[in-house]
Specification:
Blueprint: H1 2-5, H2 8-15, H3 19-29, H4 36-46, E1 66-67, E2 70-79, E3 84-93, E4 96-110, E5 113-120, H5 124-147
Length: about 150
């Protein structure tokens, strides 16, 4: 697995913080894998963003402010081997993730308190969500206002 990360195309993608190029370079390596163990190692690398880990440039709060589902929330997948998770920090409104603020490797220190360890890139589908969710909310509110479904102010 470590040799795979030294392939020039993979290294360039990591240095450029370019997740699509990283996945493309790994997909290109998959057919030339020597054995089943190598293929499985490349598959694991395809589904992780940890090689991109960069030190944080700004200090983030330990506690995520949240009231009735409105505020900040971390949404991500936990890694049981390292007791950390790759999570995206979202602005939420009534538990609905509306805008992603960043993607991080975090460790929960206490209930709802996190130590932000490193920054990793967004997956492209979250970048789309950052545009589509607010657009959908605006569309629903706009149609509701035009149809007269909203209460008068």
């Amino acid at each position: 697995m470590a040799r795979t990360l030294t392939v020039p195309a993979v290294q360039q993608a990591i240095e450029a913080f370019d997740l699509p190029a990283y996945k493309e370079a790994l997909q290109a390596l998959l057919p030339s894998a020597a054995d089943e163990a190598s293929k499985q190692a490349i598959e694991r690398l395809l589904h992780t963003r940890r090689p991109f880990a960069r030190p944080l440039t700004n200090r983030l709060p330990l506690t995520l402010l949240n009231y009735v589902g409105t505020g900040f929330r971390l949404i991500g997948a936990e890694d049981p081997l390292s007791s950390t998770q790759v999570a995206i920090r979202w602005i939420t409104i009534f538990f609905l993730p509306v805008w992603p603020l960043g993607s991080y490797i975090v460790r929960e220190t206490r209930a709802y308190e996190y130590a932000f360890i490193a920054e990793v890139p967004f997956d492209l589908r979250y970048r789309w969500a950052a545009v589509l969710v607010p657009a959908a909310i605006g569309l629903v509110l706009g149609v509701s206002a035009l149809k007269g479904w909203l209460p008068p102010q």
